[in-house]
Amino acid sequence: MVYRKISKIYPKKIRENYLKDLKYLNSKIDPEMYLGFIIISTLFISIILAFILGTIYSAIPPIFSWIGIFIILQFLVYLPINMRIDAIAKNVESVLPDALQVMSSNLRAGLTIDQALLTSAKPEFGIFGIEMNRIGKEITTGKEITISLMDSTKRINSEKYQKSMALIVSGLRSGGRLAELLSQTSDNLRKQRLVDEKIRSNVMMYVIFIFAAIAIGAPILFGLSTFLVSVLNDVFGQVDIPDSAATSRLSLPMVSFSSMAVDESFILTYSIITLLISSIMGSLIIGLIAKGKVKYGVKYILPLSILSLVVFFIVRLIIGKFMGGLLDV
Question: Full-prediction pTM beyond 0.90?
Answer without folding.
Answer: no
